[in-house]
Amino acid sequence: MRLNINIGLSTVQDISDILKMFWNLKEPIQLIISLITLYLIIWFNKIPKVKDREELLRNRLMEGGVFRPGLKTNLGTFLIYMVQMRESRGYKYWMKKLFLWKVEGHTTIYMHSDTLYSSVENQLPEVKKAVEKECNIRTRFFKSKDRYLGMFLEIPSTDPDKCMDILLEVGDILKSESR
């Protein structure tokens, strides 16, 4: 079979070659399979893995930048000790990820306070309510074994920039609400 690569179809022979190709089902199936394979290769390289995003956020939060001395609030200074990202699961999510190239999931940031004021425990329910209402995230305060205050934030995003913005917003709320 002879195919001329021209800008347009100029000869009758080109048209007949294309028709012969479509009559032979082996070649269109191979073309479709190769296009799907090409799409998947691009897809795997285009969408960053959740572990890479988690590592990026962990490096930003723990190795320097805005939060290295800690998140200073009126509740105390919160130090970040763990960051976890989890990707959504299920058939609908994988189809959305395949066709929209969009990663969804949530990020959990664990923090502990190095100082705790005596009146802070009474303020925790209203601070929690304010943080959850303003930032639309799940928040939980807990007391660790050694009586320090701990907090974890569950942010409904796997985007490191969005997580940083929400964490700054939480810091502002903690500074204003705990007065």
Description:
With 179 residues, the chain is an alpha+beta fold. It has two domains: 12-46; 50-177, Yope Regulator, Chain: A (2-Layer Sandwich). It is built from six helices and five strands. It has helices at residues 12-23, 26-46, 50-62, 91-100, 120-135, 160-177, and strands at residues 71-73, 76-87, 105-113, 138-143, 149-155. The chain has a five-stranded antiparallel sheet. Helix 3 crosses helix 6 and helix 5 (120-135) crosses helix 6 (160-177). The radius of gyration is 27 Å and the shape is rod-shaped.
What is the secondary structure topology, with strand pairs?
Layout: H1 12-23, H2 26-46, H3 50-62, E1 71-73, E2 76-87, H4 91-100, E3 105-113, H5 120-135, E4 138-143, E5 149-155, H6 160-177
Antiparallel strand pairs: 1-2, 2-3, 3-5, 4-5
